[in-house]
């Protein structure tokens, strides 16, 4: 144990407590789906509420199907999303079509709901370049694998939107691990200094692969890291779709009104493994912790809320499940039928004008591929 510091002249004893106190978890629905914060309820029509539930159920099915397609060898890279639906889908639900998304590798669902066709998400998983070519008007980057690399880019995209006079935001997603990277501070600092319309969402699912959040930082919350760069920071119950929706809606409004960026920490959990590439969560997580978080499930909670309002039932949910399964079946077939990528494809999309040495190689490959 460290020796006790003698009475200090500069009294910092309460400093950290006072900081942490200011970042209380924002919640609207408790685990039973009961409203615990009535004045914070967002003004969403029944249709909108049902649409949000539809998207979360659909995304849970997509996750289940993606895991089994991966096990059958029909998908490549896949990072499971179950447990994080409120953080991902309700945050996206607060955006507009013209907003720009810079996702991490676990954030494929937000891209799909922003307009990336499902078959392209499957091609991305298989490492096919066409999976990274979002259609015109779908303003997204492809999922970033390098932890934190999308955060400085987000500050840049946001500043670009501002300079062009667009009423839009750049939103990025990273994890608790991402919040320990240098890029994280750099991106937020720049966006704060330039009042760029950015939203930094940190999905704190408690682990960076096997490293628990307590070992990643001495900060008691991730939200409070915003204060160091002079921007608002919000910690929200990331299993509560309504709370996440409100936090992002308000951040968006501030951003487009010229008030600059916001950091949002969502407290969440991934039920599955880190990715499908051999991670075994039982080696670093206890069954008790899994159970504790499963009780907070975002779908169960929101379903109870909607059922109590009389606008959701099993039949309605089954329709969504069937639709999701059918769409996935069609999309995987479309991905199967899509032309295999060729070496020349990659060369064609890399440069506007191909350098002469590549041009030579290009001719050689073109010849080979024609046989
Ligand atoms: C710069 C960098 N370092 C390390 C890795 C290896 N890596 C891949 S995922 C990951 C953990 C990230 O955890 P977190 O940010 O909490 O996101 P989560 O996977 O929990 O969604 C690490 C260390 C990487 N991809 N990039
Ligand atoms: Mg994490």
From TrEMBL:
Its cofactor is thiamine diphosphate. InterPro entries: Alpha-ketoacid_DH_E1_comp (IPR050771), DH_E1 (IPR001017), PdhA/BkdA (IPR017596), THDP-binding (IPR029061). GO terms for biological process: branched-chain amino acid catabolic process. SUPFAM superfamilies: Thiamin diphosphate-binding fold (THDP-binding). Residues 54-343 form the Dehydrogenase E1 component domain. CDD domains: TPP_E1_PDC_ADC_BCADC. It is an enzyme of class 1 (oxidoreductase). Gene3D superfamilies: 3.40.50.970. GO terms for molecular function: pyruvate dehydrogenase (acetyl-transferring) activity. Residues 311-341 form a coiled coil. It catalyses: N(6)-[(R)-lipoyl]-L-lysyl-[protein] + pyruvate + H(+) = N(6)-[(R)-S(8)-acetyldihydrolipoyl]-L-lysyl-[protein] + CO2. Keywords: Coiled coil, Oxidoreductase, Pyruvate, Thiamine pyrophosphate. Its EC number is 1.2.4.1. It comes from the Bacteria. The pyruvate dehydrogenase complex catalyzes the overall conversion of pyruvate to acetyl-CoA and CO(2). It contains multiple copies of three enzymatic components: pyruvate dehydrogenase (E1), dihydrolipoamide acetyltransferase (E2) and lipoamide dehydrogenase (E3). Heterodimer of an alpha and a beta chain. This is Pyruvate dehydrogenase E1 component subunit alpha. It comes from Priestia aryabhattai (Bacillus aryabhattai).
């Amino acid at each position: 144990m460290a020796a006790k510091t003698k009475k200090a002249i500069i009294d910092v004893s309460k400093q950290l407590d006072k900081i942490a106190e200011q970042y209380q978890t924002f919640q609207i629905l408790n685990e039973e789906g009961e409203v615990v914060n009535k004045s914070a309820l967002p003004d969403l029509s029944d249709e909108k509420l049902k649409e949000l539930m539809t998207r979360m159920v659909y995304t849970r099915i997509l996750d289940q199907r993606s895991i089994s397609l991966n096990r059958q060898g029909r998908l490549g890279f896949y990072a499971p999303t179950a447990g994080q639906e409120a953080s991902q889908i309700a945050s996206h639900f607060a955006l507009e079509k013209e907003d720009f998304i810079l996702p991490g590798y676990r954030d494929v669902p937000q891209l799909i709901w922003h307009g990336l066709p499902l078959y392209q998400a499957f091609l991305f998983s298989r490492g096919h370049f066409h999976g990274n070519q979002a259609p015109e008007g779908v303003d997204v980057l492809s999922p970033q694998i390098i932890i934190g690399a999308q955060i400085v880019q987000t500050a840049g995209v946001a500043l670009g939107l501002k300079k062009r006079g667009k009423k839009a935001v750049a939103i990025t997603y990273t994890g608790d691990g991402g919040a320990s990277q240098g890029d994280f501070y750099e991106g937020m600092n720049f966006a704060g200094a330039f009042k760029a319309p950015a939203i930094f969402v940190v999905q704190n699912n408690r682990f960076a692969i096997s490293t628990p959040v307590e070992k990643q930082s001495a900060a008691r919350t991730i939200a409070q890291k915003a204060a160091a760069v002079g921007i608002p920071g919000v910690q929200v119950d990331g299993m509560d779709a309504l709370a996440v929706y409100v936090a992002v809606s308000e951040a968006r409004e501030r951003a487009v009104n010229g008030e600059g960026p916001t950091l949002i920490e969502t407290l969440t959990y991934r039920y599955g493994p880190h990715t499908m590439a051999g991670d075994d969560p039982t080696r670093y997580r206890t069954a008790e912790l899994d159970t504790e978080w499963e009780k907070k499930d975002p779908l169960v909670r929101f379903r109870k809320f909607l059922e109590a309002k009389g606008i959701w039932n099993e039949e309605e949910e089954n329709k969504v499940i069937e639709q999701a399964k059918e769409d996935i079946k069609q999309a995987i077939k479309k991905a199967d039928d899509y032309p295999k990528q060729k070496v020349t494809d990659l060369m064609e999309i890399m440069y506007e004008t191909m350098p002469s040495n590549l041009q030579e190689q290009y001719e050689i490959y073109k010849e080979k591929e024609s046989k």
